[in-house]
Structure formats: structure tokens, C-alpha cells
Here is the input.
Amino acid sequence: MRSPEESADERWLDEHAGPLVRPYVMTRGRILPIRGRFDLISLIVTVQPVPMSELGFGPEHLAIVDLCRDLLSVAEIAGRLDLPVGTVRVLLGDLLDRGFIAVEEPQPEVNMSDDAMYEAVLDGLRAL
Here is the structure.
């Protein structure tokens, strides 16, 4: 039984999983972004501020727009906001859909069709 001193927030926590309801509410039950694909290393930047008259965004959306004035990865955003990555991806999809952020996919450093790269990987594995 819970003591009367416990706050309402503590009732919605699971000692193993953490917050149970809040991410679900933030995303309105969605588990996939409505637009965009966001890898952990995808870079996000704000392209325009959210006007005060804009409806449908929660404080987490606004925090993302504020954080991403400088380029940040999806993983960094999730870490700084202390939110699950899946939740951040859904929120980013909302912002991308309405034109408030842009996504930059990092360029691969290696040409994946280059046979020399595969040979180098095999040589490295053999050396182990």
C-alpha cells in the first residue's frame, strides 16, 4: 500500500521499466513517426522556430526545437531529454512533417560496394 506522501507521478512508475504512461501520452499512442526515418546517428537541426500560435505540440516538441538549434543526433536528443529513443523518433516525425526540423543522414565513411573494404574486414577478423 502506498503512503499518502507519495506523489501522483510515483504511482505511474515501475521499478524496472521506469515511466509507464508519459511516453505513451506524449506520442498519443503512436509507436512510429508519421514522417521520416530516424537512426540513432541521424542529425537533426531546427530550420524555423515554432510560433506561439502553433497547436498540437507538447513541451517535449518545443524542447527538441530549442535543443536542435545546433546539430544534434537522435541519440543525443533522447539522452538530453531523458526520453526513450522511440518516443523521440515519433516527436521528430511530427516536427519534420510540419517543417520545423531538417534531418541530415551522416555519409558513410566507407564505400559498401568496395571489395577492398570487405577484404580488410575479413583480414581483421582473421587476426583475432
Summary: The helical segments are 8-11, 22-26, 59-67, 74-81, 85-97, 115-127. The beta strands are 13-14, 18-19, 43-46, 72-73, 101-104. The radius of gyration is 20 Å. Confidence is low (pLDDT under 50) at residues 6-10.
